[in-house]
Every structure is written in structure tokens, then in C-alpha cells.
Design brief:
It contains 15 helices and 16 strands. With 424 residues, it is of the alpha+beta class. A hairpin with a 7-residue loop joins strand 9 and strand 10.
């Protein structure tokens, strides 16, 4: 370890790349506004029990991936590994369900999981997600699929696919769990160590295993559809009917489950052909029991989340969200002394108008300052010469065509107008 090396699984996002993030963030805000979702910001860390109870003790995240620590008061806290449980906690703490329903919230920010870093996956990663709480309408499930698709389309992304399934509810899932256990027990020697440990605690997670030896065993595993109760079967049929009516293409994936215990009924995943084997660019589903599990009254809910780095990787693979490099509106060249002081006054005036204005802070020669203006791609150069300053004038040079004009230093509004016109 050195002081100039970032921790494994983290990333720096700097100039030339951060602009892509800004573009994506703006599109997220626009799409969420169109669907009526409002932003909620929750703490970076929460009480550990929130995730243990919300996500599930037998999940990989709780067992292996959470960053958990004791504070000075010996309280167990955890850096948030996902966004849904904190949103539900805030929903309950602030009685957000006391008004009009459903409550529509979205979040955007860093999450933390101790997992093996790979392309687009970090131990500190950024997640965008949204939650709709207070309605069990199947149309809201469809909206949870439509919103991210609208976002992807707004970004210009193509080649994505929706996979969908129903994993039932606490009423009908136990019989399916039992059938899975009965199917896998005679084949336990063919399972990987993770699947063997999950067999009796969370057998649905075996359906999600990517280990090749387990894939062969999974081929003959029973399906959930035969166990769905009438309510779950009707709900899922309505979801699919709405998707058909709205022209949303999807693929039924009977092995699709989610890594969190709180999911019920509809689950879905969006994949991209740009990401190889680990091709997910977002997933979600319904979680009708989580609010009650965390201490509230029974409240149906549905949501979605996407790793921003994964989405950006897919977008970059298709050449979308390209950075548009723009230089300063003006670079102010001075000769030091009084000319530097006047250049500083004009620079602050232009910045107050929202224009990027640069000037020399290294007392370089005029030639070096002009080179700096060229390197930055400045549209104009403002020259504060001693002779011009004695006449209360400055020289404005258009760096595109080389034309120059003199302006009165008392007429800075005129200067701002000229520079503003070049930005159109």
C-alpha cells in the first residue's frame, strides 16, 4: 500500500469522464420527473440490523459483503450496500405514507460491498434506484420496468433485454421451496460449496448460481409457476398483459430470482449485450412485505436499481454520452501589475455572468499565456495591455478567425454580450 494508490475496488472519476456522469445524472432527473418520482437522500451508513432484517441473514451481501463496524458507542453500523432498505426506513421514520399514495421516491449515490472487483463493479459503486410504496397494482410493476427502459432509450442505449419472472409470496412459496430441497438433496454432491450451504436456508438462490457444475443440475429443477397461488398467478398475468399492451418486449426466465429475501411476486432484470457474461444493467421487483418486516404496517411496494458504472460501461461500448469538450469563453492575458488587477476584476465580472474565464496565475510571458489559451481551447482572448489600459480599453481577439476589436472597459455589459453570443 502507498499513499498515492487508491484502495482496491474504488475508482477516481476525473475531468474527461465526469462529464459523462453529469449527462447521465441529468437524464435520470428528467425521466424520474416525468414519472413523478422525487429524490430522497439517505445516510451513507445505517444500523446494521436494518440490512440484516431487510436483505436477509442468508444472503451473500449480509454474510460476506457488508462493511460493518462499531462506532465509539459500541453500536454496530454498516455502510449501505443497497438503497431499498434505507428508503423504507426513511418512509417509516418520516411517515411518508401518511399522504397521497403511492409514494414515489428515487435515490442516487454511493453504495459499498466487499466483492471481487471486475469491469464496472467496484467495492464502492454508485447506484440509481427508485421505489413506489403503497399500491399493489400490477401496472406499477410495469412502470418499474418502463422507467429504466425510458432512461436507457434517452441515453441512446440499444441491445438490451428484459427478463421477468414471478417468485410468488409467503403463502405459496414454501411449497416450492420444499420441492426445490427435495430435488437438490439427492444431487447435493454435484453442487458448489455456496449452493450446498444455501440448500436448506435459501434454496431459491440456487437457481441463480452461475457455476458450471450447478448449471447442469439446474436444467431439471422444478419451476415456481406450478406453485403460484391464485393471487400471485393473477397478478403476474396482469403484469404480462400490460407489457404486451404497451409493446414492451420481454423474455420469461423461470430461473430468475433476486439476491435479497424481501422480494415477492414480480422480479425482473435488464441485460445488455455490451457487458459479456456479467450482463445485468439493472434489476428490480415487488417487495410487499418489507415495510411490515421493518416495523410498519403492511404496505405493498415495488422498485428498481441499476449500478451507474455498469450502465456507463454499456453506453461507452456503444459510443453514447460522448464528452463534448469546451474551453473557456475567454482567457485574460495581462502584463502584471495594474493590468493583472484589471484582468482579475473583469474575470470576476464574467464569472458572475456564468462564463468560464481564465487568467494567468504564474506571471508568464505574453507568448506563454497565448499558448495556454490555445491549449485550453479558449474562444476569445482578452488582452490587457499597459497602453490600452491607460486609455481604459482592452483588446478582444476572436481565436477562431483572429479578428480583433477594442472595447471600453467601462462597458463590460457589451463585452459580456459579445462573449455570450459566441456561446450560442
Amino acid at each position: 500500500m502507498t499513499l498515492t494508490t487508491r484502495p482496491r475496488g474504488t475508482n477516481d472519476v476525473g475531468p474527461g469522464e465526469i462529464e459523462l456522469w453529469h449527462q447521465l445524472e441529468e437524464k435520470i432527473r428528467q425521466v424520474c420527473a416525468a414519472y413523478g418520482y422525487q429524490e430522497l437522500r439517505t445516510p451513507l451508513f445505517e444500523h446494521t440490523e436494518l440490512f440484516q432484517r431487510g436483505i436477509g441473514e442468508a444472503t451473500d451481501i449480509v454474510e460476506k459483503e457488508m462493511y460493518t463496524f462499531l462506532d465509539r458507542g459500541e453500536r454496530s453500523l454498516t455502510l449501505r450496500p443497497e438503497g431499498t432498505a434505507p428508503v423504507v426506513r426513511a418512509f417509516l421514520e418520516h411517515n411518508l405514507g401518511g399522504g397521497a399514495l403511492p409514494v414515489k421516491l428515487y435515490y442516487y449515490g454511493p453504495m459499498f460491498r466487499y466483492e471481487r472487483p471486475q469491469a464496472g463493479r467496484y467495492r464502492q459503486f454508485t447506484q440509481f434506484g427508485f421505489e413506489a410504496l403503497g399500491s399493489q397494482d400490477p401496472l406499477l410493476d410495469v412502470e418499474a420496468i418502463m422507467l429504466p427502459l425510458e432512461l436507457y432509450k434517452a441515453c441512446g442505449l440499444s441491445g438490451f433485454e428484459v427478463e421477468i419472472n414471478s417468485i410468488g409470496c409467503p403463502s405459496c412459496r414454501p411449497s416450492y421451496r420444499q420441492e426445490l430441497v427435495e430435488y437438490f438433496e439427492p444431487r447435493v454432491d454435484q453442487l458448489c460449496s455456496s449452493c450446498r450451504s444455501r440448500l436448506h436456508r435459501n434454496p431459491l438462490r440456487l437457481l441463480d448460481c452461475k457455476v458450471e457444475s450447478c448449471q447442469a443440475v439446474l436444467a431439471g429443477a422444478p419451476r415456481m409457476e406450478a406453485h403460484l397461488c391464485s393471487e400471485c398467478a393473477d397478478h403476474f398475468a396482469q403484469v404480462l398483459a400490460y407489457l404486451d399492451e404497451l409493446g414492451v418486449a420481454y423474455r420469461l426466465n423461470h430461473r430468475l430470482v433476486r439476491g435479497f429475501d424481501y422480494y415477492t411476486k414480480t422480479v425482473f432484470e435488464v441485460t445488455s449485450s455490451e457487458l459479456g457474461a456479467q450482463n445485468a444493467i439493472g434489476a428490480g421487483g415487488r417487495y410487499d412485505g418489507l415495510v411490515e418486516e421493518l416495523g410498519g404496517k403492511a404496505t405493498p411496494a415495488v422498485g428498481f436499481a441499476v449500478g451507474v458504472e455498469r450502465l456507463l460501461l454499456a453506453l461507452e461500448g456503444q459510443g453514447k454520452l460522448q464528452v463534448q469538450q469546451e474551453g473557456p469563453r475567454a482567457y485574460l492575458v495581462h502584463f502584471g501589475g495594474a493590468t493583472k488587477r484589471k484582468a482579475a476584476q473583469v474575470a470576476y465580472f464574467l464569472r458572475g455572468k456564468g462564463m468560464w474565464a481564465e487568467l494567468d496565475y504564474l506571471d508568464r510571458s505574453i507568448k506563454a499565456q497565448m499558448k495556454a489559451a490555445n491549449r485550453l481551447g479558449s474562444r476569445y482572448v482578452l488582452i490587457f495591455g499597459e497602453e490600452e489600459l491607460s486609455r481604459n480599453r482592452l483588446i478582444v481577439r476572436n481565436m477562431q478567425d483572429g479578428q480583433e476589436q477594442e472595447l471600453d472597459l467601462e462597458d463590460l455589459e457589451r463585452l459580456a454580450y459579445i462573449l455570450g453570443e459566441c456561446g450560442k
